[in-house]
Fold each of these.
Amino acid sequence: MNKVVTFGEIMLRLSTERHLRFGQSKAFAATYGGGEFNVAVSLANYGIDAEFVTRIPDNEIGHCALKEMRKMNVNSSNVLFGGDRLGVYFLETGAGNRGSNVVYDRANSAIATVEPGTFNWEKIFEGKTWFHFSGITAAISENAEEECLIAIKTAHKLGLTISCDLNYRSKLWKYGKEPKDVMPEMLKYCNIILGDIDTAFFMLGKEKINPDYTDEASLPSLYGKLFELCPNLKVAATTLRYSISASHQRIGGILFDGKQIYKAAVKEITPVVDRVGTGDAFMGGLIYSLIKDTNNKQKALEFAVAACCLKHTIVGDYNLATLEEVENIINGDGSAKVSR
Amino acid sequence: MNKVVTFGEIMLRLSTERHLRFGQSKAFAATYGGGEFNVAVSLANYGIDAEFVTRIPDNEIGHCALKEMRKMNVNSSNVLFGGDRLGVYFLETGAGNRGSNVVYDRANSAIATVEPGTFNWEKIFEGKTWFHFSGITAAISENAEEECLIAIKTAHKLGLTISCDLNYRSKLWKYGKEPKDVMPEMLKYCNIILGDIDTAFFMLGKEKINPDYTDEASLPSLYGKLFELCPNLKVAATTLRYSISASHQRIGGILFDGKQIYKAAVKEITPVVDRVGTGDAFMGGLIYSLIKDTNNKQKALEFAVAACCLKHTIVGDYNLATLEEVENIINGDGSAKVSR
Amino acid sequence: MNKVVTFGEIMLRLSTERHLRFGQSKAFAATYGGGEFNVAVSLANYGIDAEFVTRIPDNEIGHCALKEMRKMNVNSSNVLFGGDRLGVYFLETGAGNRGSNVVYDRANSAIATVEPGTFNWEKIFEGKTWFHFSGITAAISENAEEECLIAIKTAHKLGLTISCDLNYRSKLWKYGKEPKDVMPEMLKYCNIILGDIDTAFFMLGKEKINPDYTDEASLPSLYGKLFELCPNLKVAATTLRYSISASHQRIGGILFDGKQIYKAAVKEITPVVDRVGTGDAFMGGLIYSLIKDTNNKQKALEFAVAACCLKHTIVGDYNLATLEEVENIINGDGSAKVSR
Amino acid sequence: MNKVVTFGEIMLRLSTERHLRFGQSKAFAATYGGGEFNVAVSLANYGIDAEFVTRIPDNEIGHCALKEMRKMNVNSSNVLFGGDRLGVYFLETGAGNRGSNVVYDRANSAIATVEPGTFNWEKIFEGKTWFHFSGITAAISENAEEECLIAIKTAHKLGLTISCDLNYRSKLWKYGKEPKDVMPEMLKYCNIILGDIDTAFFMLGKEKINPDYTDEASLPSLYGKLFELCPNLKVAATTLRYSISASHQRIGGILFDGKQIYKAAVKEITPVVDRVGTGDAFMGGLIYSLIKDTNNKQKALEFAVAACCLKHTIVGDYNLATLEEVENIINGDGSAKVSR
Amino acid sequence: MNKVVTFGEIMLRLSTERHLRFGQSKAFAATYGGGEFNVAVSLANYGIDAEFVTRIPDNEIGHCALKEMRKMNVNSSNVLFGGDRLGVYFLETGAGNRGSNVVYDRANSAIATVEPGTFNWEKIFEGKTWFHFSGITAAISENAEEECLIAIKTAHKLGLTISCDLNYRSKLWKYGKEPKDVMPEMLKYCNIILGDIDTAFFMLGKEKINPDYTDEASLPSLYGKLFELCPNLKVAATTLRYSISASHQRIGGILFDGKQIYKAAVKEITPVVDRVGTGDAFMGGLIYSLIKDTNNKQKALEFAVAACCLKHTIVGDYNLATLEEVENIINGDGSAKVSR
Amino acid sequence: MNKVVTFGEIMLRLSTERHLRFGQSKAFAATYGGGEFNVAVSLANYGIDAEFVTRIPDNEIGHCALKEMRKMNVNSSNVLFGGDRLGVYFLETGAGNRGSNVVYDRANSAIATVEPGTFNWEKIFEGKTWFHFSGITAAISENAEEECLIAIKTAHKLGLTISCDLNYRSKLWKYGKEPKDVMPEMLKYCNIILGDIDTAFFMLGKEKINPDYTDEASLPSLYGKLFELCPNLKVAATTLRYSISASHQRIGGILFDGKQIYKAAVKEITPVVDRVGTGDAFMGGLIYSLIKDTNNKQKALEFAVAACCLKHTIVGDYNLATLEEVENIINGDGSAKVSR
């Protein structure tokens, strides 16, 4: 049976409600999330044995994050206590042509200040088959980046499948290194990469490109370069996102397995209840599908797109759609009738 | 003056808010509703003398339901106390391509466990002109079904107009009888039936059909069979519902009076605030219009469709649209300007 | 540096939430606003020195309004205490084809009962460059209308630019005078007028017209008549509003400067979070742009339209969009991506 | 069977929650109440046929008040529509040594502006046995006072028992008359009066006194003077209230029936959930008890005190305590165990 | 290391907030709890390995209960899915002299309808040292009672310590058996019993007694009879509860170990935030202390009393007080200073 | 006219509501406060011209804090933008014997990382008469401490009255210096000091003492030592706080002016709505009174105690009691009757 480990940061998210702006809010909804944790929740919801590894402060707010992991059935047995604070981010949810707004307050978090070598990855990976991380972990601090690289190398050594969501965030990467300084080393161990091709090229320190995803014939060679740069790569996937407005998105996907291009039809999403974490929902769906049937790439892509679509209707950072709900979308039933 | 009696169940509805899923909710909005009660509320809002007959438990929750009836100006003077519990249903309101979700917890409710013969229908129907019930009452328990049949027969004997909303719910009908065992007897007394033709055929135990409502020429003979099976039938109407997503519905309607087909133009509904009870709003509008002008079938159908549309914008089970608001929609003003 | 004074009423707004109807609401959201105050807030948000002049009662509710002015950085140093009550209005926010509903309860408010001559306009206007008022102030009471006229004349004498939003409200004008009795005198001092041409004609006591805003060639002569009737007029602007439903609006604009017609492209707004005050947001944007670059009429109109669009996504009476957000819309980015 | 009519004003109450001050509140809880309506609700709760007569505006807010009457099972069949507004009051609930704060905004309400002679009291009182009013109705406007006097005289002529709660409010009585100008005429028809002796003397235009309620021997002659001034008086009762803090009250009572003094033991109330309407709860309890057993004055007083105590634990203007709960308090069980 | 298993029902609790009565509530706070689950949560909070065994329906509401178990770190690996519904109870929280009100709607719950023999207790108890149940499980249905007896006998056979909280609920026991029919058999295996002596005698079918807990000398013989009737009994404890009002409780305790009486000083509790589950908090504290130091009976009793006190300040069914907080109370610091 | 400047940190406070624990909360109430800001708000409420000086980040959360300053009528014209984050603290409000709990997350805040010398104190103090700071500013970082010392010395040079609230927080002082390293230098310029004598001695690096405030005769010599150590000291005051429980406090006060001891009677406070900021309310009251009548020390102390008491009933960090409310308490009316 497959067992997946994800590593990264879990934050307290403080969001305004009912489209209020920050300055109007007398209360913030408090939830907990973070890219790699969100992936673990998706997997746990689909029935996969999923574990999240991080460090949280040993205070009441850290314990809230731990309760959330347990509630969502994510294994937290290798979570460490330490550091001074849980990272925080503030979210103002937009509408129509007013975009959502994120204010990060995550510097010096428990995981950002972890001493590299703190986690016993050999032990953590015992009996595990898959390791997932994202570019965010490499972006928050040098310490986190170094710890992540140790994890990647250990996972590689132990034969785990390794996946990465590139997740470039321009507001992070403040600690003195650029993506091209660290990501090439990390990505070379990866078997599955999710991200835009141009982001991948940027992170790998290559020349800037402007991929045209509608020009299907051009894609194999573009993705092919990625395969050249990442010798362990088996699957590269991209979420196609067309942002009509904060309340209306269109989502499709592309996948390349080194041999052929797979495409998923673009789906309309309106209204958008919560835009955050929809990429993580895609990633979670992709991992799940590849675990279940590694050879059915078309299904994997469609599952990822459908999961991503459903996440847009769900409040909070992580996807709460069930396996059955995702399957229904794939099977063409997006009519969303009342079940009664 | 017309006086209408409806008979059925009123439930406590517990719904999540702001699109939260069940597992995210720390509170449930508490409202009260049920198919036949919802129809009575619609009629009371339009100025009709409407009475709702049911049984509720003599506990605090039952009294909450009674307060709701009074608040909505629905006559409750023949409501009986008894039984152990008020039926409950849980509602998770969907959005976009995530459908709404209903969890019923209505078994063994006060009305489901009523002893047939408990209500004094002769007295209840004194001075009344119309009796309405729905297929839900026949579906919840044998006791309720038998009591309902007594009511129907008494209403027929006393010369009341009888209407039925077929309202097939696959999650009910658990007590050992199928629709075809009881509905034919009930429907034969009915003067007005609301429902899909295929549902009607199914409930009447006939062969399955797939009506094509866009093939207008085929409809007279299809509805005609219904008229053959239900000798008292005067009007058969169908709500045409096209579910684009949980947030986007398209509603039209068809009516057959034994002679000709009437059609109402399809209206766009976006966003959907609350999908539940929109069929009851259609029924309420139909009864009201037929009472007001029994000969104007086209107006009756358009009124029902407009009422149904407006209900989609209203929180809770029953329709709160005013007569004036429904008329405005019929008169083509759906632009919904601010009234000031 | 430009300093703007606006004069009018600030009210307590009590609105239902989550699309509830009045009869369903156990609580009302309490905010504070009013046409001319809303304009002042817009200007303050854009960095303009803006002052609001009014009279409020010296009770706790009046002080709440004062706190709101301060919070929004609107100069309140000439606000007077007096009178018995703050005006109130109730708002039920619609959705889809159910329109929003306003119940006014603003009669006998502190500003409506002000004794004409109460404010020392000579002193208030010291160092100020712009005076703004609206047709609402003329509509609430004879006292307010007379005070407003004193303000207008004083502003004119002192050489301030004068702007007016016609803002016709049929539910007001209850004190015995009609618009044509007072507005012509007021408008003759105005340099900028915002409103529909037919409303302007109506308020000026002229024959009713039905302008066709799509017939661009016809507009110069129509607006030209306005310029004839208002000898100080420099700019006349009109918000083009197409109300598809309470949740879907389309907004464009037209501006005439005595020489040529400027047009702004129509923008789609869906969903509408809050429809109230969108005209004030237009006005605020127009004043700001004309102050910043009085010669760029095209930019002024586009800024006004963009500000108006963004206001539809913001809860409450006044616009909270930032300068940067408005500029982004003008520059064509309505895709509303998450900023992170 | 006894049927009681009360006459007065019903207002929209807008209160802050969780001890917030006005300036901190972004929302107000909306409930409906008023002295005489509150008495009617108490009686309806105890099973008495109770009717409330008033005038409300024919707008959405007026209809909310009507819904509340119906919900609480108070007969509203003689409520008239008319006037411009429903009276409003704002309530800031105190705690500890910070008192609650009321801001009235009730001038020019529908009932305050009623034309005397509007109500058909002869018809209203048909089949009724008891009429209740309070000093508030006399205080809000001359029109209301005159209408109330017509009601009183008609009730007297038709032989109804008449009760009055003196309810002196210094913030009212703004219309040019003082209590001593109108209350003597009103009180001379009264059979039951609730109020402090000094308030009664003040309203009757007599010299100021300082009654010492602990000097039991002095009370018969003090109350006796009241009986002299009010020839129809049968029962005079006083709520003894000791306000330790906004959260801690002590309530007792005294009753004089022209022959002897009855006393009810003082009860501790902590915490106070809602102080408003506790006097009306006393009045409602007194009327109920006197209807049920006119001769048991001791029981009547104790019932009134117990009802008053329980009201302090209930949110809103009127008492929701059940007959059984009041009886339990009288029978000495204030331990308030969980019922399960 | 000790591992505790508790067996019973977990319910959805729907409670009114801010002291509202049922009929005033438009929403119910939704939490999950039940006597034996609450004990498990207490133990998990103190660091004990605690497992809860029950049956829940395989619907969304059942899954909510499961999420709650996980969140609270209670082992749920032997929870079964089955049955039709999760039990529900409604709670109206009182204040002052108005008591809290519970409406049970728990008949036919998943655990009440479990087929005896469904659970594999031999396997469940592997590696476990303690089994806890309560009289509620015996009261809800014959099926639950029989399953519980199987568990008790299996636990006894396997040498686990067995504890029982008598928890008599007069509103339960509806299935045809009385406590005396089943409790004697159950209690004879128990090592620790919590309850009033008179309740114990009643459940054991003995003559009614009226123990005077202040007469310390009388207690050894009273408890001694219990020890005679329950041959395995080692510790009998009683929570002394003095209910001054719904907001003010006084809590003490008595414990008898077959040899001597231990007493804990009575503590004042004001205000009471949530009265429900305080007995379970006592039980949880008692089990924890006896596990940690079985010989220190005085400490065990004081720990149980302190835990019970703290629970009164916590919303929901189960105790969230930490080990440190309980210890602080025992050490005499109830001054509750701000920790900062 | 007196003008007061306070200097320190303003934080975002995130607090649970309705006594929920952190782990139960799905939302945090968001308010803004901090010791020295709270003092400025008190003064502004009493009509004093009060300014707050700090540094806030130029992001949305920083702007929220700025809006709060303006709303509360506190001059913010010398507030600087800079740094990365606004300090945050989490508050769990206790009840009964469960204390409130504060989790600080204020490290690296905008003010803690300010470069000493950033503020232009000479300019800030122009026309000002009083400077207030507290021991918290010295505790948060070396930078803040150094900036504060510059401010103190400048204020002293310019002849302002200087006051300090010692405000010892053991969870702060993490940056390498102890109070005794910096406070003696700061306090030697102070004219008014608020704090416990033992805290003062501790901060001044003197031997630990255990003052007995009930031994009045001992106090002059104890406070006298403070006067010896602080050559500019004119008034030393101490808040006497007796914490009965989190919901019940008793507050008194002592003041020494170098010549005699003044005492204020102890007041009962129950319930405590919000304990935070009550010391700042004391300080604000003390400064106000000394400004108004520097010679009436008894009145100053009583005003401070009354203000402190009232703050306990007010949600949030700062005091919203009005001058009139404080005066009423001093004049002995703590009965908190409803004002209507």
Amino acid sequence: MAKKIKVLVWNEFRHEKYEESAKNMYPKGIHGTIRDFLSNETDFEVRTATLDDPQQGISEELLKDIDVLIYWGHNYHDEVRDEAVEIISKRIIHDGMGFIPLHSSHESKIFRKLMGTTCLLKWREANEKERLWLIEPGHPIANGIPEYIEIEHEETYGERFDIPTPDTLLFISWFDGGEVFRSGCCYIRGMGKIFYFRPGHEICGAYYIPEIQQVIKNAVRWAAPSNGPIPILGKARPFPRT
Amino acid sequence: MAKKIKVLVWNEFRHEKYEESAKNMYPKGIHGTIRDFLSNETDFEVRTATLDDPQQGISEELLKDIDVLIYWGHNYHDEVRDEAVEIISKRIIHDGMGFIPLHSSHESKIFRKLMGTTCLLKWREANEKERLWLIEPGHPIANGIPEYIEIEHEETYGERFDIPTPDTLLFISWFDGGEVFRSGCCYIRGMGKIFYFRPGHEICGAYYIPEIQQVIKNAVRWAAPSNGPIPILGKARPFPRT
Amino acid sequence: MAKKIKVLVWNEFRHEKYEESAKNMYPKGIHGTIRDFLSNETDFEVRTATLDDPQQGISEELLKDIDVLIYWGHNYHDEVRDEAVEIISKRIIHDGMGFIPLHSSHESKIFRKLMGTTCLLKWREANEKERLWLIEPGHPIANGIPEYIEIEHEETYGERFDIPTPDTLLFISWFDGGEVFRSGCCYIRGMGKIFYFRPGHEICGAYYIPEIQQVIKNAVRWAAPSNGPIPILGKARPFPRT
Amino acid sequence: MAKKIKVLVWNEFRHEKYEESAKNMYPKGIHGTIRDFLSNETDFEVRTATLDDPQQGISEELLKDIDVLIYWGHNYHDEVRDEAVEIISKRIIHDGMGFIPLHSSHESKIFRKLMGTTCLLKWREANEKERLWLIEPGHPIANGIPEYIEIEHEETYGERFDIPTPDTLLFISWFDGGEVFRSGCCYIRGMGKIFYFRPGHEICGAYYIPEIQQVIKNAVRWAAPSNGPIPILGKARPFPRT
């Protein structure tokens, strides 16, 4: 039997505790909603953690047993302790843990550290229509996805998105108000795979849309560790001459 | 004194001869309009050629003296003789001639040959608004370009655009009718640089817009040959052991 | 139960019929050897075909039932009929069939067509040592692969290799005689995934090396179709305004 | 008259002060040697700075007048104050200053910050032969460069080099002792262009080799700011509907 992919869904979980509109939209928290739809898959084993958990829900102990980390943060990026950022970064770069930052996590400490740029962008909260166009239909994350995904109401993000060129650009969003955005971005960093995925404002309902759920499921499978060799770095002897 | 960049603007030149609306928009032909604005640059030396010229305006003799080829074709791609396609391809791949296919040239024989894919896309003629968002403001082709360029009325192109992932993606277009499109795509192929640039429907006036002109001028300078070494290919002797 | 990946191993199969040294090295033909080690995998269903088969072993009928095509050709590329090249290309670009050209297939009609460049390189037959360094240990094709793979005696290939920049560069080879070579190159073209893999001279024994076999097994799984949407290309209506 | 490119050559400058072998090789310091050969170019205006200068030779005041920063560091990366790293990073990302880290600068704070990975590698000091193969002869940095550059004695670096996939891979090194290395790596980060170039051990003489000098000159021109638009990031209003 194939080994299950161990997923941790980490959520800031403040909006859904303290703001009526977010609480109404995601009564179980965003992490709870994501956990629920992932748990239907027989090849996943899913846990959740939040910012207000002990150790902010992030420790070496916990992460060493995680294959893929899904991450949602927004207003409290600065509260995340630097040690947690180091732990996550090391798990990705050294050990190949997959990392799926969602939506406003573009501005999280960990994503900015991994990218090396500001990761800033244009934005507004105007309940605009978003249409995510699939750019690489041959990619594993395109499995079962239609040509485009529509979200009736979403927060708007717009270019320039200050990120490194993605290794693969999967989705480009069209917004009613006139912007475009690189909404699905694949990277390899060290041993780890990263997939930034844009949708998911806390008072809109993107994570209830089956196609959005399918993208995240596909991304988990794509981002799971590949079982390649840990590179031996540092001082090295020459090979014998033949 | 620096050597001038020798530019050939090649145009199918049928719409502007035989169709009233295109003739009115581009009385000198699209090639004439492009030649005019390029000729203002002191570092360019510009010529034009068209499909109905002797040898369809494309011969080894002519191209061996050209640094950058700008190319506009649409309804008569199939008329272009295969020999001409070979001549252009060889000049790009072997000799490093720059190549700037415009608009409907996405479906030209030469572009499809260079890309290896169908280069098909979605399209409609609906006079929609196009907004080209600049994705890489640090790239040489971004010189003097604003954050976005608006074209009031244009033919619409939409993804999926069946091309290889660009080496650099410079522009993404937003269209009024709901599509997005990768409108500025840089490639290196062999010794040559290629820049596909989307705008330029024959009855809209994109080539009169100063920012569009600036993109094309920048692209000519970027695509000019780099004077690197011609690789020696084929059978090779080993290096002596030390 | 998961669907099996249907693999076709196509081989020119002339060296191993008519040349003693190749026949001794691969008595079942290169295709037979590859089939044998792939057939140990329970998720593969493997067939073979060769140039001297009816229809050169390539027809629409046959390929429409194939998920991944492994391809070895060398001295008789020109004999492959253009129709066969079209059939393979269409299956890759339109339908997402995976394609794994091996060794001297770099110069095959089909690979050159897909790449758009000459695909030429430096080479010599000098029984040199090759050491393939793994560049992206986080990639799925790195599964179970060591840091480097050594081949005691191989034909030498050297840069410049006239190909488009790979979407992902997986292996770089070091050769005893002083060259380097991009030996493992991933591309997406249309709906299909392509993995060029260098080793496999007909009189050396690369395909008997377990790590080389493992790379090819990994590549088959990586290149299998992703079940993304077939893009709808051509004339398209605008979306209704909201 | 075209504006000159303002170059700052920054050097740790400890080896050449305190170690006999490095002092003998570079009596003016590595920065002095690089300054000398760059100063022959009429389009460059060159300054130098070192770690033991006031403010470690790096301040906002100084950098705001610099177009391209060449950087050599090795044993004292940790001494570079975090404020200096922030200043350099901001000038690159926000303002488009070019950045050319050389040799052991792969492990500098600033390069690691920009890359987001460990940037570690294999190495040894064994006076081996290095042969840098040019992989993209059509790139501007290939101007006037031969197919390969040989360095008789150099420190050896080997893969795995833990960096993000370069936007363009220009050079791959072959080393006598059996390793390969991605020796010339182009990146765009924010508004800025980055070119990592491998050669330059403090007791070998790489910076006296004309072809190595030519690569650095080309890289300065390539990395100079492109005069694109500073993106407007943050809250944005929708465009008016038409």
